[in-house]
Amino acid sequence: MAKKNEEEKTNVMRVLDQKKIVYSHYCYIDLCGKEVTTNGVRIAQLLGQDPARVFKTLVTVGKTKQHYVFMVPVAQELDLKKAALAVGEKSIEMIPQKELLPLTGYVHGGCSPIGMKKTFPTVVHGTAKEYERILFSAGKIGYQVELPASELEKVVKLSYADIVEAS
User: Fold this and answer.
1) Which domains, ranges and CATH numbers included, belong to the chain?
2) Which of 4, 19, 69, 152 is the most exposed place for a label (fewest CB within 10 A)?
3) DSSP letters of 77-125?
4) Going edge to edge, which strands form the sheet with 143-147?
5) CB-hemisphere CA count at 13 Å for 18?
6) What mean pLDDT do residues 17-44 have?
7) Nearest by Cα to 53 from 147, 121, 153
């Protein structure tokens, strides 16, 4: 059962509050606290949302050793060639999972584009602009925030591009 959780605030929520950005937040843990998943499609199901407007946050490294953040719908995969083109790199690859926490401050399944230890260029798949509101990790496994992509732009410097693999 997904439910709005009014009690626990994540760092992402605190940043949004500081910037006076209106958002909704959700907890996707069942009433017994047992259902915690990092599968994006399952999260969308638990929240009763279209997976096309629930985004996952992926961290990569380019051939130049620069890091980049990409946000894609949870049911789709990042196309590394399109992603490299979007940021002007010859090639990019996913960072090893063990590097995620030291680099961003987030664990796998709880990574958010908001509140990382450092600011990285961020590219969001262009379909985000088609929805009134999108959902993404609130920076902790079990929590999501929902807001217009235009509001995310006020917190994270981002661009939009076609960065997913063709179906």
Assistant:
1) 3-161 (3.90.960.10)
2) 4
3) -B-HHHHHHHHT-S-EEEPPHHHHHHHHS--TT---SSS-SS---EEEE
4) 3-4, 24-27, 143-147, 134-137
5) 10
6) 81
7) 147
Q: What is the DSSP letter of 48?
A: T
pLDDT band at 106 (very low <50, low <70, confident <90, very high): very high
- Which of the four pLDDT bands, split at 50, 70 and 90, describes residue 2? very low
Query: What are the structure tokens assigned to 55, written together?
Result: 């985004």
Check: pTM over 0.85? Answer yes or no. Answer: yes
Helix, strand, or coil (residue 131): coil
Angle at 155 between CA 91 and CA 104, to 5 degrees: 50
Could you read off the pLDDT of 56-91 as tens digits, one per residue? Answer: 999 999 999 999 999 999 999 999 999 999 999 999
Close Cβ partners of 164 (under 8 Å, ≥ 6 residues apart): 72, 73, 76, 77, 78, 79, 82, 125
**Two structure tokens written together for 5:** 């959780």
Query: Predicted confidence band at 7 (pLDDT cuts at 50, 70, 90)?
Result: low
Its sign, for the CA torsion 139, 118, 164, 16, is positive
